[in-house]
Amino acid sequence: IKKIAVLTSGGDSPGMNAAIRSVVRTCAFMKLECAAIYRGYQGMIDGDFKDMTARSVNNIINKGGTILKSARCEEFRTPEGRQKAYNQLKKHNIDAFVVIGGNGSFAGGLKFNEEFNFPVMGIPGTIDNDILGTSYTIGFDTAINTVVEVIDKIRDTASSHNRLFFVEVMGRDVGHIALNAGVGAGAEEILIPEQNLGLERLLESLKRSKKSGKSSSIVIVAEGDKTGKNVFELKDYVEEHLPIYDVRVSVLGHMQRGGSPTCFDRVLASRMGVKAVEALMAGKSNYMVGIRDNNLILTPISEAIKAHTPVDEELVRVSDIMTT
Ligand code: ATP
Q1: CA 109 to centroid of ligand 1, rounded, Å
Q2: Residue 206 and residue 31: Cα distance in Å, rounded?
Q3: Which range is the signal sequence, renumbered to this chain (predicted)?
Q4: Complex prediction ipTM
Q5: DSSP labels for 58-78?
Q6: Is the CB of 8 under 6 A from ligand 1?
Q7: Scanning 141, 181, 316, 324, which has the fewest C-beta atoms within 10 Å of its C-beta?
Q8: What pLDDT score does 198 carry?
């Protein structure tokens, strides 16, 4: 392997730039050539490449999003599209690539590897923390800190008006963001897809909290929760069955994906970038870099894309205790 390419694919997340920087600088350190691919697999197909040096990634470690842009690319799902991508990689003398992204991006990389026997390494970049084979994905820590900061602010206004707030947070099919930010921000209830407590329990809990003298309440709702009601329907339901609260809804949305990455995400991304390049140079392919017990590990992509990481049972228990 003489030349490695790096791309970001799927949804962006804070810390992706730190990972790009790490891959580029590790290549420079190891005297390898490095190319950046813009706009994910679409750019791979279009030949949107740029040679990188250690200096190409100055001053990006602190920036959210991805300087390489990200994209979703239907064409890469077809054999013809992947053939075009392969031709472009060959044309640019690229011997391996590192893809920073989520499950879909890894599935694409795996398929590509199977067809062309082309070395591929994955780095998990998503705020959802839903990828098997790593305790943390790049961007998750930044996202939960953003959510906690916003909930603290919502609490200020909620307690000034004796209000109940339903705050919807991202996380797709899993409740990692909701659970962690909920515990961190001291939410009264946390509704996550992994644990459907039912609407009765929600009403009971809110009643109890009002009786115990709480003037305001914050309920965190994961976007994938299984109550069968969205946040606005939850508001209507609670107002109808428990007319003691003035209920408001706040859907946090894409602000959760932006912002300058936390130190944790920058360090994680830097470590994962080094590991990805070193693993490729050691002859490994089709793995995703992950972290467990503060050690970097490699998980076959085929395993990583099989399922979502379950939420931490111990944290669910802590959250139950904290919300009594
Ligand atoms: P996130 O879900 O965090 O936004 P992701 O990487 O899972 O990130 P996707 O949109 O699922 O995002 O996938 C990114 C791109 O990967 C797709 O647009 C497509 O080009 C490619 N891809 C996904 N699945 C496959 C597949 N089965 N075969 C080939 N390519 C795929």
Answers
A1: 9
A2: 61
A3: none
A4: 0.97
A5: TT-TT--S-TT-----SGGGS
A6: no
A7: 324
A8: 85
CA distance 14 to 143: 8
pLDDT at 33 over 80: yes
Q: What is the pLDDT of residues 56-74, one digit of tens each?
A: 999 999 999 999 999 999 9
CA–CA distance, 121 with 101 (Å, rounded to integer): 11
The pLDDT tens digits of the residues spanning 272-307 come to 999 999 999 999 999 999 999 999 999 999 999 999
Conformation bin of residue 171: beta by default, left when phi > 0, alpha when psi is -120 to 50: left
- The 10s digit of each residue's pLDDT in 138-147 is 999 999 999 9
Between the CA of 118 and the centroid of ligand 1 the distance, in Å, is 18
Alpha carbons 195 and 174: distance in angstroms, whole number? 10
Cβ-contact 45, 88 below 8 angstroms: yes
For 2, the token pair is: 């003489």
**8-state DSSP, 226:** S
Of 7, 8, 9, 99, the one to substitute when testing ligand 1's pocket (max ligand atoms within 8 A of C-beta) is 9
Whether ligand 1 lies within 6 angstroms of the CB of 77 is answered as yes
| Dist. CA 269 → ligand 1 center (Å) | 20
Angle (deg, nearest 10), helices 199-211 and 231-241: 60
Q: What are phi and psi of 268, to 5 degrees?
A: -60, -45
**Residue 205 clears pLDDT 80, i.e. is over it:** yes
Spatial distance between the Cα atoms of 185 and 199, rounded to a whole number of angstroms: 22
In Å, how far from its chain's centre is CA 315? 19
Contacts for 251-255 with beta carbons within 8 Å, 24 or more apart?
A: 251/167, 251/168, 252/147, 252/150, 252/167, 252/168, 252/169, 252/170, 253/170, 255/146, 255/150
Whether the CB-CB separation of 139 and 261 falls below 8 Å is answered with yes
Q: Reply yes or no on whether 152 is catalytic.
A: no
Phi then psi for residue 78, to 5 deg, are -105, 150
C-alpha–C-alpha distance, residues 317 and 319, integer Å: 5
pTM: 0.97
